[in-house]
Amino acid sequence: MDLDEVAGRLYALPPSEFTAAREAEARAAKDAGDVRLSRDIAKLRRPTVSASAVNRAAREHPDELAELLDVGERLRAAWQEQDAGALAELTQRRNDVTGRLGRLIRQSAGLSAAAGGEVDQTLDAAVVDADAAEQVRRGTLAKPLSYSGFAPAPVTRARPAARKKTPEGEAAKARERAEAEARKAGERAEAEAAHKEWRTALDAAAKEHDERAEKVARLEGKLAKARKKLDDSRQRLEVTQREERQARRRLER
Length: 253
Description:
- By secondary structure, this protein is mainly α.
- It is 80% helix and 0% strand.
């Protein structure tokens, strides 16, 4: 038994079961005479809700996660090469795949908006950072990951000092144009994907609002009828009470 094996078992559990299971694993390692492993197990942190949801996806949706990580690997390679065409295509695929997998994780785990945002940040980090991708692939996250920027930083290349039109100078300018086009294409694809997602959310919110408004209107109509019936019943009660009192007085006389 080693730490990776134990971590794999622990991070497959819901957060609510993690602490008790970790203590049991640490005791088992200590009883087996492996004090160092026991200490290492005890240091494992309980996962946040969002981290646990991503860990669960790594086990329950390996194909979808593999597609995301493959897009990330290809995107990083395209950025290294400053291939504007490939970057534009892969950036769009990245947005589609991360959006689809993020929604799948949020729906499967029933996450809050805040936890869902952390899942999206983690998936973005896995796309643009190789170390983050490996952590997500293992499914042993204790906390969400994050990465600044929408793509890996471009490779820095030395530029010739001379401004003469040399082949090297022309190649540098071509690279600069490719970098600018790639950034522009990536930003546009990012904006289009974000707008599409929010447009979908807006349509869903509007539909939900209309359905609930209609339901409220129906309930208000029923409530108005019920109140009318209550008023009628109150009037009958008052008349009945009055007549009963008069009948009782006549009886007493």
